[in-house]
Design brief:
four-stranded mixed beta sheet, alpha/beta, 2 domains, Glutaredoxin
Amino acid sequence: MKVDRPILPEFFKGIALFTPGGDLIYCIDPRKQTRWHLQLCVALQEILGLSEPPHFLIPCYTATVDCWPDPRDRELRVAAEAYPPVLRHQTLLNAIFGTADLVWHPLREEMCEPMAIATYHEQFPELWENHDLVVQYPIAETRSNWRSSPILPPSRFPQSQQAPLPKPTAITPPPQTQGYVLRLFVSGSNPSTERTLETLHQLLEQSLDRPYTLKVIDVLKHPEQAEADQISATPTLIKIWPKPVRRIVGELNDAEKILRLLSYSEF
């Protein structure tokens, strides 16, 4: 697919991060770096004055477009992917990335955990509000000017330039869950992983008096999620909800330790 983008690099990677309320921060990188998601989280923290970067938005509220020359005919090709919660913003994505009426490919819905994201609403209510925010994050060589700019950020569109872009519709804050939300990070599919899953499932089924959601994430397949959750070793079990967030790193064969992790909560 050939795309006419007079103001954009011919070949680039574009990464967009939305908030549940519909605000957007994105990066256009002609060098096609692969780890922009975390920088966007940090920038969003600065812009909205959050207590910490909202890493939990990754990957569910992200979209990625890649433009490259086809080696066979040197024509420009475009691949665009987005997770289900942000697919409704395709018109806005096409506007900022200059991709005309491109149809974005939906990514796997099972990577999105509405219950887990809902647990952060109380801590980050700003993310569920709509601030009419459309921000282009500067690439590395201009990053030093980010804090000193009189307008935060310098790439934020003036209202006059936002007019052609559709205003995102705010998402109603999801209700808080009454059960447990857990994430288990493993490394590949092997006998050790299978034993860990079997042991953990048995313990949860026998010991919990509330519903639970256990999301198993393979760090080999989803390194961006492992990086966002600061996973240093596997297996790692994280209790997302109820708060406070707690984790166990290493072999998960100590039933008492796991039960202490689950019992320490703010129900």
